[in-house]
């Protein structure tokens, strides 16, 4: 596994109230574009007390959040 990605996943597992599906969902979102991973990583660094809900809230407010929504693929 790439060192950067490994560091990212460890950071996600260390988020307060983290759970496997949370890590998987964030990793899936972030892996689509390098900028996404950088934004989420920066959010985690700037908000060390953020919990999993905070992280998901941050991601859902991103302008590109709906670009690859599962529903869009099904239509």
In round numbers, the mean pLDDT is 91
**H/E element order:** HHHHH
Q: Main β-sheet: number of strands, strand sense, barrel status?
A: none
Got a strand count?
0
**Percent in helix:** 55-70%
- Which outline best applies? globular
Total helices: the number is: 5
Overall structural domain count:
1
Could you name the ranges where pLDDT drops below 50 across 5 or more consecutive residues? none
Distance between the termini: 33 Å
Structural class: mainly alpha
Rg (CA only): 12 Å
The proportion of residues in beta strands is under 5%
SSE topology sketch:
Elements lengths: L2 H11 L6 H12 L2 H13 L5 H9 L9 H5 L1
Please, could you describe this protein's structure?
The chain is an all-alpha fold and 75 residues long. The chain has five helices and no strands. It has one domain (12-64). The chain has helices at residues 3-13, 20-31, 34-46, 52-60, 70-74. The termini are far apart. The model has no long low-confidence stretch (mean pLDDT 91).
Comma- or semicolon-separated keywords:
75 residues; mainly alpha; 0% strand; single chain; 5 helices
């Amino acid at each position: 596994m790439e060192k950067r990605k490994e560091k990212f996943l460890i950071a996600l597992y260390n988020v307060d109230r983290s759970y496997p599906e949370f890590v998987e969902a964030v990793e899936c979102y972030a892996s689509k574009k390098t900028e996404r991973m950088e934004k989420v990583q920066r959010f985690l660094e700037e908000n060390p007390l953020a919990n999993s809900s905070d992280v998901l809230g941050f991601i859902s407010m991103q302008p590109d959040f709906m670009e690859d929504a599962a529903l869009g693929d099904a239509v």
